[in-house]
Amino acid sequence: xxxxxxxxxxxxxxxxxxxxxxxxxxxxxxxxxxxxxxxxxxxxxxxxxxxxxxxxxxxxxxxxxxxxxxxxxxxxxxxxxxxxxxxxxxxxxxxxxxxxxxxxxxxxxxxxxxxxxxxxxxxxxxxxxxxxxxxxxxxxxxxxxxxxxxxxxxxxxxxxxxx
Length: 163
Prior knowledge:
Blueprint: E1 18-24, H1 35-52, E2 55-61, E3 65-71, H2 77-96, E4 108-111, H3 114-126, H4 128-131, H5 146-150
Antiparallel strand pairs: 1-3, 1-4, 2-3
């Protein structure tokens, strides 16, 4: 008996949608090998933030995955990530002379209720490096927006911190 293959359900996308986005390295491999790789991703993220005008409420870049807390504007999340992910993929493959997939499948995007979930989700994202043993405290991990929450007037701030 053949198993019927079900198509993926379409993502729910609308202006003002609030998503917890997770992008993982293929086979859980590292997607950031050097400090410059983390910087490159933040640069790419900033470029697409300017291009598509979405709100980035928080992030953490782990060696093998990324968490983003995104609120969409007029541009759907799928279009935003169809720009960001290939840009990192291409930069990684060019820099390290590799081929093939950098990411494991498509990104995961969980549609969130801002009022009920925001603070817990930001806490979860910022404490990811602590749980992984990469930092003793969230504020000691460099590749996170946590420091922007502690000092909201930080230079280069393009994170939207909600009241």
